[in-house]
Write a structure and sequence with these properties.
6-stranded parallel beta sheet; 2 domains; alpha/beta; about 350 residues; homodimer; 12 helices; 15 strands; Rossmann fold
């Protein structure tokens, strides 16, 4: 009845609950499911925008309708909490619709820090009606990292960023899918609740006990290194006042060979901390490459921009400017596709392959 | 009956359980309680060394007896699990004595990752006989760091190290007590289970959910910054393959002005990871000072050596060599006292005070 297993359920038909929080950052879970699993979404539930479409309110999801009650989506099997509020608590106003979903025998999927399955009223409703609760962040990780058994022929990539909620998951999924379209055996390694809902597996590392973060990430890598390329979803940034612990554990657990830096031009401060300026891209790169020296060494091989707030001309100009400043390939995956990103990764893989034939393994 | 509150209980009379694990590293909880709270320890419980003294088997604790059963310490009020095993699980062979302690109405204090209060048999025994279970690592930290409200006139110091179990807690307690002897209003900020048992307050940050590590540490600093100096207990190291997440969250949450680097001369590899070489002191310092740039800046102001495995001559030679190499004051607190450490800190505080009158606050 209650579970943490993130396994993707075959034939799921999702309603995404965003009620009143439909900006693309707050509703990033909903946005990403609309972007990457559109065939499995039947509606967005938001009484403040009834009758409009997902594309109208979130910029993605095409004609998927916005509805104001579950009864308007009779075939739905899952209600997904579509926002990631700071602090991770479910808004009180959403309890009635969660209870209604359970009463309909639906599965309610939540990525919040507060587990729905710890709420006696919700558990009772699920038990009574045959509904299910899936808390994607629930985990019992207790393994430490060991730095043993890694397959160096599998190229490990990590998306990193200058801040939270900046596009690291999007860049990782876009890159993985673009590699797959070029027939590369690539796998997206989800490390956050939204990525897990998209991919159907992964580990919610920001919810892991701090002693076991590095170990949980290393375990993900070991489990999937039969693929040729792993694209690990980054979290926050190692310069972040709040979440740097998560980001460094991820770096040292994933032990990436290469990193993709994600940035949003124009973002000046850490989200929610207007008094803390964002470090420059150069400082962020230097910090990551320095700390990666302690996990085998790594370099930033490309930059992915998130230009959602810019017009096309400004976006193109920023892209050129940043490329010239950093001397790195710069892509804008949502606006212009991921070809440049894939080219950079393929050049990096080729250089690694050459190095492997001429040097001792690292 | 079961609690996490680490508050030091007045009049506690402790038996330290180390049964068969009496080397000073594995039994570091016992060693530190013997060193810093000797008046509150009535016995060490270890059937493999009955009749000897604490000093015989752990090198500290003087004539405190080693006993083989609780009945030999009839006045004891607490049984403390005295070891910190990797993985954090209580050895099965210890259950009978834990049950016996609860049956005697004693308090059982554990710093393990596995909570005794999650064990139905132990809880039943406590309930039946009026015993108590205190799981020092239990916490419900859910606050994020905000970088607001820090009192810059309070000097924040952090002990850092080149590895785990190397003496960061010892250096922090020794420095705090030495400052207090010079009438400085200093406070030890415990961040691990042993430190919490010694000090009676603190937060077990390696057991905090990773998203909230930075916040839990910042909260400790905010709660105690009415003191003139805070000496924050370090954990692991930001270069550690397993635990770097904990260490970086601690650095960015504590936002130290100065750091004390703890090292054990002769240690070549990370504990438990013989295939992972320890970085040099220089590389460790550079990594910490680089990452501290993102929390206001910090510098290493002194080094504290742990020379327990060296003879006096070698220890003195290492101390001189490292001082010359790094250009930093080097102390050997357990062997030679903390005067050099305190002098270095007092010079650092004086320089900060001068800077505060001539510069804008950082």
């Amino acid at each position: 009845m209650s579970e943490s297993a993130p396994a993707r359920r075959a034939g799921r038909r999702m309603v995404l609950l965003t009620e009143g929080s439909c900006d693309p950052v707050t509703a990033k879970t909903a946005s990403c499911l609309l972007r990457y699993c559109p065939d499995e979404v039947v509606a967005v539930l938001d009484g403040t925008a009834t009758g409009r479409t997902a594309a109208d309110i979130l910029g993605v999801g095409g004609a998927i309708p916005v509805i104001d009650r579950l009864a308007a989506a009779p075939g739905a099997t899952e209600l997904v909490i579509g926002i990631a509020p700071p602090g991770g608590r479910v808004p009180a106003a959403w309890r009635p619709v969660i209870l209604e979903a359970l009463a309909r025998g639906m599965t309610v999927v939540s990525g919040l820090h507060d587990f729905l399955a710890d709420d006696p009223e919700l558990v009772a409703a699920a038990t009574r009606h045959g509904g299910r609760i899936v808390d994607v962040r629930r985990n019992d990780e207790r393994d430490v990292a060991n730095r043993l058994g890694l397959r160096e022929a599998c190229t490990r990539l990590l998306t990193i960023g200058t801040d939270c909620s900046i596009g690291k998951m999007v860049a990782a999924v876009e890159l993985t899918r673009a590699l797959q379209r070029r027939r590369v055996d690539a796998k997206f390694i989800a490390t956050g609740q939204t990525g897990i809902m998209v991919e159907g597996d992964g580990c919610p590392i920001d919810r892991v006990i701090s002693d076991f973060v590095n170990g949980a990430v290393e375990k993900l890598v070991l489990a999937h290194q039969h693929h040729d390329v792993l694209v690990v979803e980054g979290q926050a940034t190692i310069t972040h006042p709040r979440y740097s612990a998560v980001s460094l554990g991820l770096l040292h657990g994933a032990q990436p060979h290469g990193m993709i830096l994600v940035h949003e031009p124009g973002r000046m401060h850490h989200g929610g901390l207007p008094h803390v300026a964002l470090p420059s891209l150069q400082r962020t790169i230097a910090a990551y490459e320095h700390m990666a020296e302690f996990s085998g060494g790594s370099q930033v091989v490309a930059v992915a921009l998130n230009t959602r707030l810019l017009d096309a001309d400004t976006a193109a100009r920023e892209r050129r400017r940043i490329g010239a400043e950093l001397g790195l390939p710069v892509a804008d995956p949502i606006r212009d596709g991921s070809d440049d990103l894939v080219d950079a990764v393929e050049r990096f893989r080729a250089a690694r392959a050459v190095a492997a034939t001429t040097e001792a393994p690292r």
